[in-house]
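User: quick one, fold this
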Amino acid sequence: MSGTTESTGTFTHVQGELTWTIAEHRSPSEAVSMTRHLTETDEGRYELLGLVNDCEIALFWDYFWNHVVAASFDADGVDDLARDVPEEIRYAGRGEYFADVDLNEWDWIHPRHQWRAE
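Assistant:
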C-alpha cells in the first residue's frame, strides 16, 4: 500500500462524542454538521470548552481577550462569539475559568478539560 495515513483517533473520538451529545439534545439529522462547525471554530484564537443550555450554547476560550465567550450554533454555523456569559466564567484567568462553575451542569465538556470536573 503506497502513501501514509494520518492517525486521527483522538480527533475522531472527540467528534463522535460531541456529535452524539448534540444528537441527544437537539437534532440527530443536523448533529454532524453542527459538530463540524464547532470543531472548525476550535482552532487558532478560540478553544472549545464545552456545551451548555441543552447544547444550545458553545463556550470557547478566547486567546486574544483571555476570557470565555459563548455562541449559539446550528447546522449553518457558529454565531458571533461575543455572547454574554456569567462574569465568574468570563473573566476568570486562564486555567481558573472552571473554578466557580459546576461542570456537572454542563451538557458536554471537551475531553481536554474533563479532568477539571473530577
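User: anything notable?
Assistant: The chain is about 25% helix and 20% strand.
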